[in-house]
Design brief:
This protein has 11 helices and 8 strands. The chain is α/β, with parallel strands linked by helices. Helix 2 links the parallel strand 1 and strand 2. The relative contact order is 0.14. The chain binds thiamine diphosphate and iron/sulfur cluster. Iron/sulfur cluster binds next to helix 8.
Length: 264
């Protein structure tokens, strides 16, 4: 049953052994299956990056577009066919470096689509340049002696930009990830799911994080459910869970109302 969502002719995939992005692909397929969505009801729009390759592996309507521009293409698709479920998988660089402006404005408009940000804190595909999510003190090919850029918090950015569903999980917490994807796809507005997803090749190795297993163990040990007491005792813990879920007028429906009013 799950196989019907996979575009087998594109396999074997390009990902390194232990890359977190395969776990995200698997979870997304399980979420689509849980929702009982037919392949014709979903469009997946992605830019460029290891994470963005997810669109190629899904046997749905898919658009593999330009680095950083997935949300612009996705906006066009959603505006012309609002009845479709639009899903936009992006890397942290794709979504928040070159694509940062598209991200804040799509969130501000509250256009109904599901964005998945695979945060591996690095430009994986191009060999390990630092991204806006790498963080102070990390190493990258473009910061061999230490990165002096501060990172930002995707949840806080999405919240202040106006996203109406915002959640964070990791590749270790697969059941939570599937449930968040289900909720995000059902949400009638702009939804953001940040997934901490390991890049053992370009982030892990350079930052002495160990292999994929150690990196996932890090997610297990260094995250805590949102609002938990542990966070008060250990402020360095990363919170995961649903941070925002609210209703606001959605962009396509508001646009259609104006079209109808003008026609009258
Ligand atoms: C306009 C443009 N600029 C730069 C690139 C080169 N490029 C391709 S992927 C990428 C970054 C990938 O990092 P990220 O989006 O975080 O995804 P990851 O590969 O880590 O999953 C860059 C800079 C490009 N393809 N197009
Ligand atoms: S370079 Fe990193 S992000 Fe890209 S496939 Fe390899 S492990 Fe995954």
């Amino acid at each position: 049953m799950l196989k019907r969502y996979i575009r087998e002719r594109f396999f074997p995939h390009i990902w390194c052994p232990g890359c977190g992005h395969g776990i995200v692909l698997n979870s997304l397929i399980r979420a689509l299956h849980k929702l009982g969505l037919s392949r014709n009801e979903v469009v997946v729009v992605s830019g460029i990056g290891c994470s963005a390759r997810i669109s190629g592996y899904l046997d749905l309507h898919t658009l593999h577009t330009l680095h950083g521009r997935a949300l612009a293409f996705a906006t066009g698709v959603k505006m012309s066919k609002p009845e479709l479920n639009v899903i936009v998988p992006m890397g942290d660089g794709d979504a928040l470096a070159i694509g940062g402006n598209h991200f804040i404005h799509a969130a501000r408009r509250n256009i109904e689509m599901t964005t998945i940000i695979m945060n591996n804190r690095i430009y994986g595909m191009t060999g390990g340049q630092f991204s806006p999510l790498s963080g102070y003190g990390t190493k990258a090919t473009t910061a061999p002696f230490s990165n002096i850029d501060h990172d930002f918090d995707i949840v806080e950015l999405a919240r202040s930009a106006g996203a109406t569903y915002v959640a964070r999980t990791t590749t270790y917490h697969v059941i939570q990830m599937i449930n968040m994807f289900v909720d995000a796809i059902l949400h009638p507005g702009f939804s953001v799911v940040e997934v901490l997803s390991q890049c053992p090749t370009n982030f892990g190795r350079r930052n002495k994080m160990g292999g994929p297993v150690e990196m996932m163990d890090f997610y297990k040990k260094n995250t805590t459910p949102v609002g938990s007491k542990d966070k008060e005792e250990n402020p360095d813990l990363i919170e995961r869970g649903v941070f925002i879920q609210k209703d606001l007028p959605e962009y396509c429906s508001e646009y259609l109302k104006i079209v109808e009013r003008v026609r009258e």
